[in-house]
Amino acid sequence: xxxxxxxxxxxxxxxxxxxxxxxxxxxxxxxxxxxxxxxxxxxxxxxxxxxxxxxxxxxxxxxxxxxxxxxxxxxxxxxxxxxxxxxxxxxxxxxxxxxxxxxxxxxxxxxxxxxxxxxxxxxxxxxxxxxxxxxxxxxxxxxxxxxxxxxxxxxxxxxxxxxxxxxxxxxxxxxxxxxxxxxxxxxxxxxxxxx
Length: 195
What we know:
It contains ten helices and eight strands. It is α+β, with helices and mostly antiparallel strands. It has two domains: 1-23 and 131-195, no CATH class; 32-123, no CATH class.
């Protein structure tokens, strides 16, 4: 098994795949499949669930009636089999309750609401950072690893065609999550890796 080198920036451990692998979301191909396929909802923090709750009167206007019913039933989040806070899924399906369909494509209702000026919250950071998965280790460090999912194969291929690295594609959410200094150091590490 190949293990990628790890880069440490402060208290964050970064898999080198994040700076060597290419990625550029290919929405035209997947049509938002990551919102409707998966074993559980999108991971989120308690603070994020509170932000959704606070903005829900606006967010709900962008949601399907099924999604609204699910939130009325279960609340703004669920706890999955791993004990994590996640977005609720509809019934026995894999579809996130916070989805919105337009012309056969799936969008995030929270993000649609944000883009329309209805709320400040964009969407859970785990969604914004994908295909990076962040986890807090037992020693308190945060680990950032690259997740590979078959439905995103086209995004990895598109990233290679365009020459866009994972960390470049995700600059804004990485800065929002970990700060500009972190991103600057990550970019320096990427340049060193290229050499």
